[in-house]
From TrEMBL:
Keyword line: Oxidoreductase
One of the Pfam families matching this protein, by short name: Aldo_ket_red
Keyword Manganese: no
Gene Ontology, cellular component aspect: cytosol
Source organism of this protein record: Micavibrio aeruginosavorus EPB
Keyword Oxidoreductase (UniProt): yes
Protein name: Oxidoreductase
InterPro entries linked: AKR (IPR020471), AKR_Detox_Biosynth (IPR050523), NAD(P)_OxRdtase_dom_sf (IPR036812), NADP_OxRdtase_dom (IPR023210)
Domain of life of the native organism: Bacteria
Any one Gene Ontology molecular-function term assigned to this protein's record: oxidoreductase activity
Domain NADP-dependent oxidoreductase: 19-319
Length: 344
């Protein structure tokens, strides 16, 4: 397993982590993703550890805390060998202070996550979304205090806009507060918007990128083909695409066609090629993979240990290209003074 530095921090993380959104399945939304119990979770964690994946990602809102509880039970007795990340900000109750990134909410959310996980510290704590009602200084001071208390080690942000990230980083520098070291965001061959602003920002500011949903919300698993309806997995469900990004069908089919060609050339599978492509991109410290079954997990692990040829990467780049939104398409005309991390 390859280990990479997480942004400008001193922390080394495996290039793959295991996402536990499939653990629990106690709410209607997350039940569609999976309902992995403690026994099955323990087996998946065993396979990860055998492959060198010692990093597990969860969030307090996954199945209303049940994902954290299942993960905590499954890692009991071996926590010292692992890295754990979880998240806060989104609603965990009906009260006016049961959501957001206020000091009030974050301290309680962190304490609750620690209890559910059965641990005394969280290695990487993410703000799951931006809270525009709370001053960033209040959020960062609360996180800095939690670090000082030894309850969290590092902090990151997820699903922020570029200006949200920069405002926070500037506040950290100005006030001498802990700094976000990682950005967890959606990025895949099916949707490359991350490259337009957030990737250049991460490169410039030294943020490590953790990718969620690297297979395009299940669209790059090989189960969705031109002229065929998926017959298995989450995307076969009527609610499987709920909450995910929109993707033009023809654009998706064109990408899958090229993935299929390269899979045959390399002797790999479509998801293995898609994940391997992602691992070559700038700023990528970690890719969060998920699986409901042992077979799915082992297949995803097969994305590592080999290299796509330059011409294969170029074909994937070309077929997945979309004209950026303004002002990014305009900036392409001045790229000799504004170099991009990758070809848009």
């Amino acid at each position: 397993m390859e280990f990479r530095q997480l942004g400008r921090s001193g922390l080394k993380v495996p290039v793959f982590s295991f996402g536990t959104a499939t653990f629990g399945g106690t709410t209607e939304f997350f039940k569609v993703w999976g309902d992995t119990d403690v026994k099955a979770a323990s087996r998946l964690i065993d396979i990860c550890m055998e492959a060198g994946i010692n990093f597990f990602d969860t969030a307090n809102i996954y199945s209303a805390g049940a994902s954290e509880e299942v993960l905590g039970a499954a890692i009991k007795g071996r926590r010292h060998d692992m890295l754990i990340s979880t998240k806060a900000t989104f609603s965990m109750g009906d009260g006016p202070n049961d959501k957001g990134s206020s000091r009030f909410h974050l301290i309680k959310a962190c304490e609750d996550s620690l209890k559910r996980l059965g641990t005394d510290h969280i290695d990487l704590y993410f703000m799951h979304g931006f809270d525009a009602l709370t001053p960033v200084e209040e959020t960062l001071r609360a996180l800095d205090d939690l670090i000082t208390a030894g309850k969290i080690r590092y902090i990151g942000c997820s699903n922020f806009s570029g200006w949200h990230v920069m405002k926070s980083l500037a506040a950290s520098e100005k006030d001498g507060l802990a700094r976000y070291v990682a950005y967890q965001g959606y990025y895949s061959l099916a949707n490359r918007d991350y490259e337009w602003e957030l990737m250049p920002l991460a490169q410039d500011q030294g943020l490590g990128t953790m990718v969620w949903s690297p297979l395009g919300w299940g669209r790059l698993t090989g189960k969705i083909r031109r002229g065929q309806k998926p017959t298995e997995g989450r995307m076969a469900s009527e609610s499987g695409a709920v909450g995910g990004p929109e993707v033009n069908e023809e654009h998706l089919y064109n990408i899958v066609d090229v993935l299929d060609e390269i899979a045959k050339e390399t002797g790999k599978t479509i998801p293995q090629v898609a994940l391997n492509w992602l691992s070559t991109r700038p700023t990528i410290s970690n890719i969060v993979i998920g699986a409901r079954t042992e077979d799915q997990l082992r297949q995803n692990l097969g994305a590592l240990g080999w290299t796509l040829r330059a011409d294969q990467i170029e074909r994937l780049d070309n077929v997945s290209h979309k004209t950026p939104a303004y002002p990014y398409w305009h900036q392409m005309g001045f790229d000799e003074r504004n170099p991009k991390p990758v070809k848009w």
